[in-house]
# Entry
Amino acid sequence: MSAAKDKDRDTLERLLAMRFAAHPWHGVPIGDGAPEEVMVYVEIVPTDSVKYELDKATGHLRIDRPQRYSSFSPTLYGFLPQTYCGESVGARCAERTGRSQVDGDGDPMDVCVLSERDVSHSGVLLRARPIGGLRMIDGNQADDKLIAVLDGDNTFGHLQDVWQLPPGVLDRLKHYFLTYKQMPGEKRVVEIPEIYDRAEAHEMVRRSQADYGREYGDPSERVNTLLALLGLSRSSG
# Structure
């Protein structure tokens, strides 16, 4: 590539980053430290009386529904950017639980983040370390909930594995996820057949990244594709 083309490419990348906000799911990197350290986009904080959810098309938070009961999320709750619960995530769930076939739920990987500090609103990014997870099945779909600690948190930041948590914390998380989708007059089958450790949480991060690549392509190639469409391909010179 010529020096002029290289300069044009760098300028375009810089201008795009300044002009447009990154899509929280597709445009924000999970981080070079994954799976040990990951970026998290927060959708819900413990004081929220409505359930917020990312609108996948626009990248904005939308109100999914009011919380029907007095149950509030016990932790910060969100997802890992550039992950997807697809074939590989579903296959791992089937393998670990002995089910014949389980599908991924088609969403990014969910994560609960423990912190002693209050976070007043959602729609923020944070760095966290996965230490375990809940193997949750909603209907016949894998809907894992990773458990992570906020990077640098004074109370939880030193924890290395989910089994170091007080039992009451795990019980609270299990109760919330087994009940928060239940609606009056509906019967919804939600199960948590397994609580898993840090090593398995890392495996689920890797699998959800692989599923994302199969579903949406390699994130690192998107700028190359855009540049090629604009006649500034890195391969041109």
Notes: The beta strands are 38-44, 50-54, 61-66, 76-79, 103-104, 110-114, 125-138, 141-142, 145-150, 190-196. The radius of gyration is 19 Å.
